[in-house]
Each structure stands twice: as C-alpha cells, then as structure tokens.
Amino acid sequence: MQINTIAKAKYRATAGLPSFVIENHEAFVEFLKSYFLWSASRGNELILESLKNANDIDTTIDDLLPSYRNAIAKAFPDNTKSDFRHFSKFLKNFYGIKGTEESFRLFFNIIFGENATVKNPKDRMLIPSNGTVYKEYSILVNSVSGNAFDLLNKEVIGDSSGSTAEVSNIVKLTDGTFKLTLDYVVGEFSLTDNIVSGSIKCAIVPQYKLLSFVSENSYHDGDLINIDGLLLVVNRIEYGNIESVNITNGGTGYKKNDRLYASTSGTGSGFIAFVNTVDSNGAIQSINIVRSGFAFDKNDVVLSVRSESGNGAVLVPVMNQEFMKIKKLSIANNKKYPYGNDGHSVTLQDGTIINFGPIAHSELLTSYSNRSSPSSTTANLHDSYYFQNFSYEIVSRANTKNFTNDIKNLMHIAGMKMFIKNTYENSYKSNKNFSVVIS
C-alpha cells in the first residue's frame, strides 16, 4: 500500500512534464517528487483541517464570508457597522426576538452603530371612556383619642367598614370638628365608622347627602344654590327646543313660506319654521315648524320673520315643559348634617324642592389618572394613519435613507404601519427630524 502510494506520487510528479525538463532539470524534478510524496502522506489531514477551518466563522477565509452571509443573513445589508464574524453568532437570538423593541435596537446597532427606540402612537391617542377615574373625598370627624392633626399623610381605616384611605389635608373648623381630605380611598366609609390610625381615633360626623330634587323652570348651567352655608351647584339643566309658536300679533303683509328665525344670547340652534297661512291682509294665522331646534339654555329666545313686505308680527316661542329645570345637581361645599338619621327637605323660593339625608363622606374632586380619555386632554384623535392601534414609530439618529427596503424586508411586522423618524444633532445642537413611512 505504501509502495503503491509512493509510485503514484512519483508518477504524478513527472507525468506531463516535457522530456527536456526531465533530462536537463533534475533538481526541479526531484523537488516535484518530494512535494507530491509529502502531499500524499498528509493530504487527508490537510483536507480535514481545511474543512474544519472553513466551518468556523472565526477561522474561515474571507472569500467564504459572502457564502455565509447568503446562507444565514441574506436580508442584512452588506455595509454594516458591525463585524459580520461577530454579529453572525447572535443571529439565532436576533431572529428569536424579531419584531420586539429589543430587536430594533439590536438591528440599528448592527447596521448603523446607533441606538433606536420604538414608540407606539396609540399611547398618545384619545380613547373614549378609557381614563381611570381618580376621586378625592372629605369627611368630618370629632377627635376621640389622640391628636387628629397627627393623621396627616397617614393611612387610616374605618373600624366598622374596613375601608382605607390616606389623609392628605386636615382643617379644624370653627365648630371644633376636623375636615379630613382623603386620597386613595378603598371601600366606602360608613356613619358607624371610627377613623383609626395607631392610637388616634376619630368619630365620623354626618354630612349632607343629596337624595332627590323636584325643579322649577328657572335655572342655568353653573347656578349656585346656598342653603344656610351648604353650597350646591347646578351642573346641567334641561335644554330646550321650540315646540310651538304663540301668535300675539299677526302683523300685515306676510306671505306663505316666509322664514322664521330664532335668536338668543345663550346657546341653541337648528330651529326651522315657515309662515303657513295668512289672512287677506297678510296677517300670520299659523306657523309650520319643520325643526324645533335644540340646546337652548336661556329663556330670552326671540322669533323674527324674514319677509319682503310683512311687518308688525309678534311671535312668542313655546318651549318644552322641562326647559330650564335642573337635570344634574351636586354639593360643592358640604357641611355637618344636623338631623341625625332622618331625612330633611328644603323648599326654595321658586318652589324647587331638594331632599337630603346623612352620609359619611362627600366627594371633593373627580379627575383622571391618565390623559387618554378626558375631553380636555392633549391626546390625539384617531386618524387611521399615524394615530391608530396598529402603527409604531422607530426613532434613531441613524441615516436610514438608503435602507428603508432592508428594514421593511427584515424587520417590519405584517399588518402594522411602520414610521421611521431620523434625528440628528449638528454642531450647533439644532435638532432636525425627518420621517419615513413604511406600510
């Protein structure tokens, strides 16, 4: 076997050589024989070592790197900031987190050598009825033991109801009771509760609770009602519409289909009516109301007729029966309820009747712990484009102008709309922003 290998090596060394080389260049021929003998003796070892090196990303030759890239990172751009030998070791991890914020950060570091953050426009979008309501309460107490002022910034518990809250403010009133402002209320305090924190105990004093009311037609939004220091506010009235028109004076010279108009110093619009019939002198006899209007909030509505020849008509609007009655009423500044557990009724000068009972606490403030729902929010309206549930924005200093297709092919999440905002700072620290949209 060994002799056969040597013979083959010597034959391969001289095979194909011209005869004059064999005869005149003995040293060269001996060199070739020696090389082929050496290659025959270590060939398998060299091949295995070469394959082993080619299979290792750290030791393979540069000429093989394009083949590696085509096999495992075909979608990655060629001109990356990171060394391919290094970042290729983390491709499995990268593909495993594709579509997450971390994957975008890693991608931008690899390709551009810059950081990136992902923002969700839906986090800045107005979502109706999505705000978390935050309420602040007040209770009146008499001190039983300890100093009531020491309850400030402490958690208290109702020993009967088990309700808890944090005391954020304490005021001593002229009658000797203490007014506690409560935050983070859990549960509902009862009239039988003692407010307890450590060795401090206070008994709850009843306050007014608004039970019901029967209103007359004499109120406006925001009106205040003072009942011996108990202050109530009219949150909203029943808005009006014009149900019919009383003709006090028909005037003269009017024609059928002359248009009526309603004017007021308050709100209200949408009233459409026309002269329906007139007598031989053009006096208005009847009115045809097409639309009665809506949202009138004051009783100073005046009707006029636009006519080419008519004049002198006096028309009086007849509003709906509930117009200017109280629709929503609340207590703005509460006080001690002196009638025990009995109900109490108050009749105002205009005939409005308000019924009260006792309650352990009153609501001071209603607000929102996030800004995605209130009408006064700075959140943005849904536009089915940027501000929607299925969009996201990548913000980075990287210049992505020539890489948008690469980012889309490798990173983009199906069914989403991608936005890219490029930011950079020049030598004068002036921020510049550019946006790219990828659907």
Question: How would you characterize this protein structure?
Answer:
The protein is of the alpha+beta class and 439 residues long. The protein has five domains: 2-54, no CATH class; 72-122 and 386-438, no CATH class; 133-205; 210-237 and 326-356, no CATH class; 242-319, Thrombin, subunit H (Beta Barrel), CATH 2.40.10.380. It is built from eight helices and 23 strands. The two termini are 69 Å apart.
SSE arrangement:
Blueprint: H1 2-14, H2 19-24, H3 26-54, H4 65-72, H5 84-87, H6 91-96, H7 101-111, E1 116-119, E2 133-145, E3 155-158, E4 164-172, E5 178-186, E6 194-197, E7 200-205, E8 207-214, E9 224-227, E10 230-237, E11 242-249, E12 259-263, E13 269-278, E14 284-294, E15 302-306, E16 314-319, E17 326-333, E18 344-347, E19 353-359, E20 362-368, E21 391-396, H8 404-411, E22 417-425, E23 431-438
Descriptive key words:
6-stranded antiparallel beta barrel; alpha+beta; 439 residues; 4-stranded mixed beta sheet; disordered C terminus; 37% strand; 5 domains; single chain
* Model regions low in confidence, pLDDT < 50 over at least 5 residues: 426-432, 434-439
Strand order of the largest sheet: 2-5-4-3-6-7
Rounded to the nearest angstrom, the radius of gyration is 44 Å
How many β-strand stretches?
A: 23
Brief sketch in words of this structure:
The chain is of the alpha+beta class and 439 residues long. The protein has eight helices and 23 strands.
